[in-house]
Structure formats: C-alpha cells, structure tokens
Fold:
Amino acid sequence: MIPVYGQLSDATGLVNRLDVQTGGHSFEVETVANFDIYDFDFNSNDKKLTLYITSGLENNLGEVIMPNNLLGGNFTFYLNDQEFFPKINYNEKISFITLNFTGSGDNTLDIIGTTFLDGLTQRDEIELSPPDLTPSVDYDYELIYVIIGIILIVCVIIFVIKKRK
Structure:
C-alpha cells in the first residue's frame, strides 16, 4: 500500500504489516519506520492498539496507516504512558499517522480511537477447522467408464483404418 500523504526517506523503511483480527474481521495496519515493531496488542473494549517498539536510534520517525473501520474518530496517543501528539491526516478509508519521537531502546505506543468497526457489523468469531489434506478416494466411476469407453472406441477406429490400408 502506498501512503496517501507522503513517505519516509529512502534511508528508513522497516515495513511491518500487523494483522489485527477482531469482531470477526481481519484488518491490516501498515507501518513504515526507522524502528522495529516487535509485537502489538489490540483491545476492542478499550478501542486501543498498542505497538511495542524497539529502536537503536535516538531520533525515531515512522508512519502508521490505520483503517478507519478498525479504529477511527478522535485519536488519543500515549508514548511510554505520556500523552503524545503525532501528525494525523485522514481520508475516507484510512488515518495516516506520522510519528516523530526521541528515545532508543524499547518504547510502547498506545493508539486509542473513539470508533471501532465503523460501518461494520461485529460477527461471532468462528474457529475454522483446518482443511483435510488427505487425498480423496471418492471417484466418479461413471466418468471413468465414459473415458475408458472413448479410449476403446478410438482404438477400434484406428485398428479398422489400419486394417483397410
């Protein structure tokens, strides 16, 4: 996905695609940053996505592309339990959040929205059983008989033609 409002310089670019499963839906939150997101947690009751960040740099720059139907509305941010004010741009589908902060090592970023599953219906999460990968032995014998019959007819025709020559 290409950012709507800009992109980081070529010097940065650790891309993370966070697969958030909630309310029977799957969402992709994409980040591009000069730091790594080694884990995340989503709490639907609190409408909160927590990113666990590790960085070897003092000056950190990153972008978060958040689907509005996952989390939206007015955002509140906390970086290491301190309120944080990143730059936010919106369109009808995403919120584009630009993070700029200092501090190497481990950091925690909480992104809290005021809307959750906006425009979607929460579905019961159904556990799907893994597919049965064993070969099927349920043959359609009628089809096999038709194919054998066609092969026999072709052989008889070839035999008759060769016999006439």
About this structure: Residues 1-10 have pLDDT under 50 and may be disordered. Residues 45 and 116 are 9 Å apart (CA to CA). The domain at 14-116 is CATH 2.60.120 (Jelly Rolls). The longest strand covers residues 14-22.
